[in-house]
Design brief:
The protein is mainly alpha-helical. The chain contains five helices and two strands, in the order αβααβαα. 35% of the residues are buried.
Length: 102
């Protein structure tokens, strides 16, 4: 996969402010690559740039991913909660209140 494609996703993700999240599909649409949500996931898994807040990307239901739990289970959720992102009782992000609207 082209680094140029991934960089387009990374630019979108860098714009997500603390306390907000975006979905994989939303990132793909904002990067002018609709229907490439899965590719956004590959870009997140490949990212080693600390300026890209990958933890702010969640699935379409607000779910976090264990691949971001680099330190311990629940790392992504803990990082988001530290930024003020609220979670529903089922453990998913409350997208109604926390989804980024650029």
């Amino acid at each position: 996969m082209s680094g140029r494609v991934f960089e387009g996703f990374y630019q979108v993700i860098r714009a997500i402010p603390a306390g907000k999240v975006a979905t994989y599909g939303q990132v793909a649409r904002l990067a002018d690559m609709p229907r490439c949500a899965r590719t956004v996931g590959y870009a997140m898994a490949d990212c080693t740039d600390p300026s890209v807040p990958c933890h702010r990307v969640v699935d379409r239901f607000g779910g976090t991913k264990t691949c971001f739990d680099t330190f311990a289970p629940g790392t992504q959720q803990a990082m988001l909660e530290a930024e003020g992102v609220s979670f529903r009782p089922d453990g998913t992000v409350d997208l109604e209140h926390c989804q980024w609207e650029p």
